[in-house]
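Below is one record:
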Amino acid sequence: MTEQKRKLPQVRNIQSLGKLGIFHVEALDVKFSNGQERQYYRLAAANDAVTVIAVDGQDLLLIEEYAGGTLTYELGFVRGGIDDNEDLLPAASRELGEEIGYQAQRYTHLTSFYNSIGYQTAQMHVVIAQDLSPLEQMLEGDEPEPLTLVRWPLAQLDQLLSHPRFRDSRNLAALYAFRDYVNAGKL
């Protein structure tokens, strides 16, 4: 299939509608090359975020944390925002220390993706952390309560994909990329 080169629409105006938590809500007035005009809305984040796939021997280290969207506790990977003037791998290291109290000797950037290209500006960067050891003291983070650490056997990656509390699309995308990485013999 050939990709058609198209003229990008003209963004005529970006209006701030206010701040909502870590996001700035914006309205965009867009005019397409065929004359059609539309208004788009997006959540503009100041920074990207990181998801950390922590591998400890033959286990993944997951967290169980409260999710406001589902109003229950969900399973997922360590993740959080990248601070101002912070690079990707130091952000992964910081989040690992804050959320589960571990450090890693080796970090590998696996992939990056957008959560939703239709209305978000931030990317999610997925990092694999290996050769883990516990910190003497957990780093202070911004969590409202301690997170529960859950060990998941690497041999059961497919079962994690269908786990009823592992359902955040960011975690699923990261896990599919990680599974491909493992199946290619790169771990």
Q: What stands out?
A: The longest strand covers residues 102-114. The CA atoms of residues 21 and 118 lie 19 Å apart.
